[in-house]
């Protein structure tokens, strides 16, 4: 399909949020389900040539007209494996999309092993404002369990180098829910180290066992890789306490930030703003439709070189799906959803809300909005299941009990990968 009717200009409200999936990793981690392949110079050029075509395709479709680039996010994969020349080219390409809005937020994900003062300084010169480092843990046993190639010392050094290069919008990822010996003190130590560093943002991931990964094969053979529910909850709440003590706001189920340092790009996802994903496997949403590119560098690039549509699927959301999406996304955030959300008026949803308030899984924020409590975040999918009951099915006579913990960042109601 050419960039014709189905690729009509998106609604972007004049502010573009662009995600670029850089599909290269030095080595595949055993739990990872994101599309990625090994890096070499030939593949890098192949990727960048196709990316240029994809940007041109959307430009010809009118996607960027009248817009300003509000946030730009290079994720993956591992954008930091790009050569300096490759990074320069991708930066130039993205600069051609639209003029930058005032205070453009531009995030680049980095692996600790790629960190150097020269690399970070070059990113800053290009206009990058924010670095997100894939630390996961500082503990050797946990890093070994996760199949990560960096050491804890290297993760500390990488964070300090990014700060030294001038990044005060500096995020790290940490992972919990790992069935590793001595996990409780190691998790406490990870949190202590994280909050002793000059970071302003933390993304917290509960390990999920995704189909098709090496961990899924091990789990199928009987290996226990994640912790029991009670330990999961204890680890999550330990992280919440440590973040609070360090002055961080828990502004989204998996995200903590010092005041003024929330991720504006990710916040755009959670508030239902349109965003455009570029690169293989990248997801997009235009307020009405969502789509994903082919999860193959070759298939995505070949489609673009022949003028075909590089997308694997496009789906139009109906009012119910949009309602569920805004409910789910809103309940991920500390701001929650308006108490007048249409799905909260469906059937006996209000009775469920009242029960969730009584159980302290939901809280009223004081401005007519409803948000998850810390305990509620742990069972977000179950809360959604209970509220979604009223969309298709008749209401139950009594709300079902909420049980089982949902993995943060995962779950049935996840609508985008980033
Ligand atoms: S977890 Fe990150 S570094 Fe590991 S394979 Fe996946 S994208 Fe690459």
Q: What is the gist of this entry?
A:
With 418 residues, the chain is of the alpha/beta class. It has helices at residues 41-60, 84-95, 117-126, 140-145, 152-164, 183-196, 214-220, 229-245, 264-270, 297-305, 319-332, 349-358, 374-378, 380-392, and strands at residues 15-22, 68-76, 100-110, 130-136, 169-176, 201-206, 249-252, 255-257, 276-278, 283-285, 289-293, 311-316, 337-338, 362-364, 369-372.
Bound molecules: iron/sulfur cluster
CATH C-level of the largest domain: Alpha Beta
Average pLDDT works out at 90
The share of residues in extended strands comes to 15-25%
Strand order within the widest beta sheet: 7-8-6-5-4-3-2-1-9
Q: What is the CA-atom radius of gyration, in angstroms?
A: 21 Å
Profile the largest sheet: 9 strands, mixed
Name the poorly predicted regions.
1-9, 393-418
Shape: globular
Structural class: alpha/beta
Order of helices and strands: EHEHEHEHHEHEHHEEHEEEHEHEHEEHH
Give the end-to-end Cα distance, rounded to a whole number of Å: 25 Å
**What's the total helix number?**
14
Task: Indicate the CATH architecture of the largest domain.
Answer: 2-Layer Sandwich
- The CATH topology of the largest domain comes to Transcription Regulator spoIIAA
Number of domain modules: 2
Topology, number of strands: 15
Which percent range fits the helix content? Answer: 25-40%
């Amino acid at each position: 399909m050419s960039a014709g009717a189905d690729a009509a200009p998106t609604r972007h409200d004049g502010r573009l949020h662009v995600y670029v999936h850089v599909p290269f990793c030095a080595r595949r981690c055993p739990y990872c389900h994101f599309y990625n392949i090994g890096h070499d110079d030939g593949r890098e050029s192949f990727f960048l040539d196709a990316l240029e075509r994809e940007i041109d395709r959307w430009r010809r479709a009118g996607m960027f007209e009248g817009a300003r680039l509000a946030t730009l996010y290079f994720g993956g994969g591992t954008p930091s494996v790009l050569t300096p020349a490759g990074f320069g080219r991708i930066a130039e390409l993205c600069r051609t999309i639209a003029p930058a809005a005032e205070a453009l937020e531009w995030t680049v994900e980095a692996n600790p092993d790629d960190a150097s003062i020269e690399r970070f300084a070059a990113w800053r010169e290009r206009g990058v404002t924010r670095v997100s480092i894939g630390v996961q843990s500082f503990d050797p046993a946990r890093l070994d369990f996760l199949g990560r190639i960096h050491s804890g010392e290297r993760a500390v050094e990488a964070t300090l180098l990014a700060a030294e290069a001038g990044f005060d919008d500096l995020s790290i990822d940490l992972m919990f829910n790992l069935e590793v010996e001595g996990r409780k003190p190691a998790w406490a130590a990870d949190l202590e180290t994280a909050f002793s560093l000059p970071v302003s943002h933390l993304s917290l991931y509960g390990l999920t066992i995704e189909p098709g990964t090496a961990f899924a094969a091990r789990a199928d053979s009987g290996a226990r890789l994640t912790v029991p529910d009670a330990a999961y909850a204890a680890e999550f709440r330990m992280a919440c306490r440590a973040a609070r003590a360090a002055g961080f706001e828990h502004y989204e189920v998996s995200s903590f930030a010092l005041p003024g340092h929330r991720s504006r790009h990710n916040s755009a996802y959670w508030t239902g703003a349109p965003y455009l994903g570029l690169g293989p496997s990248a997801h997009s949403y235009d307020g009405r439709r969502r789509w994903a590119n082919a999860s193959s560098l070759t298939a995505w690039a070949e489609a673009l070189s022949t003028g075909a549509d590089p997308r694997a699927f496009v789906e139009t959301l109906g009012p119910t799906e949009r309602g569920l999406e805004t409910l789910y996304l809103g309940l991920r955030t500390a701001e929650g959803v308006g108490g007048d959300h249409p799905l909260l008026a469906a059937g006996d949803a209000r009775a469920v809300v009242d029960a969730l308030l009584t159980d302290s899984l939901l809280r009223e924020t004081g401005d007519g909005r409803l948000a998850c409590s810390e305990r509620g975040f742990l069972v977000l999918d179950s809360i959604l299941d209970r509220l979604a009951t009223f969309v298709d099915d008749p209401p139950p006579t009594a709300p079902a009990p909420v049980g089982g913990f949902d993995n943060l960042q995962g779950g049935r109601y996840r609508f985008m990968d980033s």
